[in-house]
Write a structure and sequence with these properties.
Number of strands: 9
Largest sheet: 6 strands, mixed
Order of helices and strands: EEEEEEEEHHHHHHHHHE
Length: 257
């Protein structure tokens, strides 16, 4: 008889998320964040396009907007999603990412694989995030920075949860014309403002669920027209249905870290 499946854990910060969970096989999808994935129990398979061959790997890095699909065969996976500027500057996807072989990462991976993630609190999850982030984003790759006007815009969107934000109002805040602002935003972030706002609303919806809201209330609180709109967005960006959130213990910290 198989042992009972361990419940998943989701730790959410403004700009980052750590997920430790039995693998949920995804459909082909893209999202705004850099995604780092590690197979805690065994390798998993990944591919970048529907017509591409599957690659077996233990650790992978999926650049933002890189379409990808994961087949875990039920194995326990850890994912780190990062929206920080240094992470968003990385444009290459690596299906054999080197962070998995680094000694510092191996120590935390061994602890997670030993089901110690069930007793994780936010402080321990933050330490895991910081170690993983340091292994995956060495200093030589993080020297670039965003335009200060775009950084200010991202802070504004985070503070307002993306509500009542549009190109005209955000452009005015940074003293640019709307056309210049939207061009600069796409140039710096690699995506349109409307797409980024959708991603921000999705993160807020997850946070609302973490705070005890049901799916419908979470959809409205995060600015979606209705639950169906949120569900479509969640599935297109994460590759799974938002109902998967109910299978996880979710912890959310509002602070930017």
């Amino acid at each position: 008889m198989k042992p009972p499946q361990q419940p998943g854990r989701l730790f959410l910060w403004r700009g980052a998320a750590l997920v430790v969970s039995p693998g949920i096989d995804s459909s082909l999808h893209t999202h705004y964040a850099l995604q780092l994935t590690y197979g805690l129990e065994r390798p998993f398979r990944a591919r970048l396009q529907a017509d591409h061959e599957w690659t077996e790997t233990r650790s992978a890095s999926f650049a933002r907007h890189a379409a990808h699909q994961i087949d875990s065969d039920g194995g326990m996976l850890a994912h780190l999603f990062l929206e920080m500027p240094e992470a968003l500057k990385l444009k290459a996807t690596d299906l054999q990412a080197g962070f998995g072989s680094q000694p510092e990462f191996q120590i935390l991976a061994a602890n997670l694989a030993d089901y110690r993630h069930q007793s994780l609190d936010m402080a321990a999850a933050l330490q895991i995030r910081q170690v993983w982030q340091a292994c995956a984003l060495p200093h030589s790759q993080t020297s670039t920075s965003f335009d200060r006007r775009i950084l200010s815009t991202l802070d504004t969107i985070a503070a307002s949860h993306g509500l009542d934000c549009n190109g005209e109002s955000l452009a005015r805040l940074v003293h640019l014309s709307e056309s210049r602002f939207t061009h600069l935003f796409r140039q710096q972030t690699g995506m349109s403002l409307s797409r980024y706002l959708l991603w921000s609303r999705m993160v807020d919806a997850v946070a609302a669920v973490a705070q005890g809201n049901n799916m419908t209330a979470a959809a409205h609180a995060s600015g979606f027209a209705d639950l169906a709109h949120m569900s479509r967005t969640f599935r297109s960006m994460m590759g799974v249905a938002p109902s998967e959130l109910h299978r996880m213990a979710i912890a959310f910290k509002q602070d930017v870290l």
